[in-house]
Amino acid sequence: MLVEIEAALSTSLIPATALEIRDAMLGLLSHYPTRAMSTSERASVARDWLTDLAAVPADIIAAACQEWRRRPNAFAPTPGHLLEPIGPVLAARRFQHRMASEWLAAQDRVANEDKRKDVGA
Fold first, then answer.
1. Confidence of residue 115 (pLDDT cuts 50, 70, 90)
2. Angle in degrees, 0-180, between the axes of helices 79-120 and 39-52, rounded to the nearest 10
3. SS3 for 24-56, per residue?
């Protein structure tokens, strides 16, 4: 059971793809007024979002976008606005993964010690 939990936590830490980040960003930003930007400015903003959210799993990005959208915000967020609530969630997930990995490693050590004892007996 712990192996499956560790595997699920590991999978849950896979960062979003560029396409997933783009879709979340466009979906969220479409709810707010925008200022006129040149093509190069839009590309620069998109690169910033991709860079700033590159290490974040898609489900966490989606939850942060949903949270922002459901609050009475009259303006579109910056990546930093989303990274603030994302930070603790991502840290907790990484902690849970680390704990599961450490438990598995400890189980392996105990199992290996038991095998050595059996061989030596």
1. confident
2. 30
3. HHHHHHCCCCCCCCCHHHHHHHHHHHHHHCCCC
Identify each DSSP E strand in the chain by its residue range: none
**DSSP-derived secondary structure letter, 121:** -
Q: pTM, whole model, 2 decimals?
A: 0.87
Distance between CA atoms of residues 18 and 46, nearest Å? 10
Categorize the per-residue pLDDT at 120 as very low, low, confident or very high, splitting at 50, 70 and 90. low
Find how far residue 82's CA is from the centre of its chain: 12
- Separation between Cα atoms, residue 38 and residue 91, nearest integer Å: 36
CA of residue 119 relative to chain centroid, distance: 44
